[in-house]
Amino acid sequence: MAKPYALCAVVAAVGAMLLGCTASAGAPEPSPTPFSSPSVDTASPTPASPSAVADAPPLSREALERVDEQRIFFAHRSVGEDIVKMGLPQVFSRYGVAPLRVVDGLPDGAGSLGDHWLDQTDDPATKLADFEAWIRDEGVPAHADIAVMKLGYVDVTAETDVPALFDAYRSMMQDLESAYPELVFLHVTVSVTDWVPENNAAIERYNQLMRAEYGTGERLFDLAATISTCSDGEANLDVTEGGETYRRICPEYSRDGGHLNERGADVAATEFLRRLAAISD
């Protein structure tokens, strides 16, 4: 959908009217929940990596060198794989820093990223259980400094009980943070797509809960905000037929409407590394 329509939807969402938003646009009254203004990282050599959470310092060679001293465990599925396999090498190469060693499972020392493909069923509780088992039973706290888990767009749909899923995630994380205070947990919002509007609206509801819970510090990687803010700095927003405002992935960042292309993986990896660098500082 063209951006003028999205602009009208955003204006309607905050209760103002623009002269150019006419009845012919057919935009229903959007959700009153406002979006945070993205922050632009003008120092980054790639398009801005905005975030709807507390800002992190711009990425730099020194910041990447700090990340390169860490042991990181990253549990994810396909979009996470795009970030790890396509995005991270691009960013490290651009700054002339040796990339993190990507190994299966547990990280194997400083400067490594333990890459874990989460178990998946129709129930996202499967991913939560898999991640918790790796923390408690597979030795992540003894091998990693930072642990990251990313739910995917298949885990949050229009049929999902969003508050219940978020409560399950938060409860698990609270227990893990209490049990392993030496391990830093980085939280990630669910990535958005260019597909079913009602699914994206549910994802936005979940992500708003994530932002409210974890967005006041530096421990939230707002992937959804990053890949829905295009290279011109405009958020790619839309409205469901029921009037709920949601984020969509920018077409320039995706190869199929859901997964990342090289450009999108670069933008996402840049923001991911900014968050990791802030934690590592």
Kindly describe this structure.
With 281 residues, this protein is an alpha/beta fold. The chain has a single domain (3-13, 57-280), classed as SGNH hydrolase (Rossmann fold), CATH 3.40.50.1110. It has 9 helices and 8 strands. The strands form 2 sheets. It has a 6-stranded parallel β-sheet. α6 links the parallel β4 and β5 (184-188). The longest helix is centred in the last third of the chain and has 19 residues, at 262-280. The radius of gyration is 18 Å and the shape is globular. Mean pLDDT is 86; it is low at 1-52.
Give a concise summary:
The chain is an alpha/beta fold. Helices cover 40% and strands 12% of the residues.
Q: What is the makeup of the main sheet? A: 6 strands, parallel
Query: What pattern of helices and strands is seen along the backbone?
Result: HHEHEEHHEHEHEHEEH
Percent helix: 25-40%
Our measurement of the CA-to-CA distance between the termini, rounded to an integer number of angstroms, reads 41 Å
Rounded to an integer in angstroms, the radius of gyration calculated over CA atoms is 18 Å
Q: Name the CATH architecture.
A: 3-Layer(aba) Sandwich
Any chance you could write out the topology, listing elements then pairs?
Elements: H1 3-13, H2 61-67, E1 71-76, H3 78-95, E2 101-104, E3 112-117, H4 125-136, H5 140-143, E4 146-149, H6 162-179, E5 184-188, H7 197-214, E6 220-221, H8 223-227, E7 237-239, E8 245-247, H9 262-280
Parallel strand pairs: 1-3, 1-4, 2-3, 4-5, 5-6
Antiparallel strand pairs: 7-8
Helix pairs in contact: 2-9, 3-9, 4-6, 6-7
